[in-house]
């Protein structure tokens, strides 16, 4: 399903999907995305928590990805971003939200552990997703295997450049990351992907209409039985 609407409406629809799930199943497993696009959704969920009693007390959360090597309190560490944007603003116990451990000594082991934690939680019920201008999802850059699992990756020069705006200097952007694989992400029962802005138009076009290919990692979503793509006019302009 592809919905083309204004930002406010998209935010509401994504929040509705989360709310419906959490109200129906208080121990739901949510997949959390970073990047700037999903942030209004977290704000809206916080509002619904404060004003409408939406509770995350029993929910569990799993992040999509994490930078390697950022200290625990680094403002761009994704686990910390997620705490600040949602977890600590609602009634969600911190220990119920996990991310891949970018500070682990044995990174491949940390990736395997992470996969196991997701499996033990019973898999992800609803996964929020953004998309990179080059069609990456999480940190699965072009060329990623469509069946890939959580693993260590190098960021492309493009993504490091795109994300440099969040850091004091471009050199500070980590070179490596841990990311759920496209195979991992595909196992979530419902995928909700948000994209806004004209720079996302080529990626959205490939996602919706392109041939399934590792060249555009997001095209793997075409194989999934339950995907909601939420885009504004600008991001939909290539369709
Ligand atoms: C980052 C994240 C992705 C995100 C993408 C787009 O690299 N790892 O999960 O979807 O960039 O970010 P934004 O929403 O800021 O455009």
UniProtKB/TrEMBL annotation:
Keyword Transmembrane helix (UniProt): no
Recorded catalytic activity of this chain's protein: alpha-D-glucosamine 6-phosphate + H2O = beta-D-fructose 6-phosphate + NH4(+)
Keywords carried by this UniProt record: Carbohydrate metabolism, Hydrolase
GO biological process, alphabetically ordered: carbohydrate metabolic process; glucosamine catabolic process; N-acetylglucosamine catabolic process; N-acetylneuraminate catabolic process
GO cellular component, one term: cytoplasm
Active site (UniProt): 65, 134, 136, 141
Annotated family: Belongs to the glucosamine/galactosamine-6-phosphate isomerase family. NagB subfamily.
Protein name, entry field: Glucosamine-6-phosphate deaminase
């Amino acid at each position: 399903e592809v919905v083309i609407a204004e930002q406010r409406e998209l935010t509401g629809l994504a929040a509705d999907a989360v709310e419906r799930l959490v109200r129906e199943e208080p121990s739901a497993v949510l997949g959390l995305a970073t990047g700037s696009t999903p942030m209004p959704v977290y704000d809206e969920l916080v509002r619904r928590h404060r004003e409408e009693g939406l509770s995350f007390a029993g929910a569990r959360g799993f992040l999509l990805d994490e930078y390697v090597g950022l200290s625990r309190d680094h403002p761009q560490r994704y686990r910390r971003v997620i705490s600040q944007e949602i977890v600590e603003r609602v009634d969600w116990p911190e220990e119920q939200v996990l991310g891949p451990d970018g500070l682990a000594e044995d990174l491949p082991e940390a990736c395997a552990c992470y996969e196991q934690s997701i499996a033990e939680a019973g898999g992800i019920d609803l996964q929020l997703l953004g998309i990179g201008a080059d069609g990456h999802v999480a940190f699965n850059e072009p060329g990623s295997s469509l069946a890939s699992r959580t693993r260590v990756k190098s960021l492309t020069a493009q993504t490091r450049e795109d994300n440099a705006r969040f850091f004091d200097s471009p050199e500070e952007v980590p070179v490596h990351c841990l990311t759920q694989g496209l195979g991992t992400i595909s196992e979530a029962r419902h995928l909700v992907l948000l994209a806004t802005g004209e720079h996302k138009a080529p990626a959205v076009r490939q996602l919706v209409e392109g041939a399934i290919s590792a060249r555009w990692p997001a095209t793997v979503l075409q194989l999934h039985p339950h995907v909601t793509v939420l885009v504004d006019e600008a991001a939909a302009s290539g369709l």
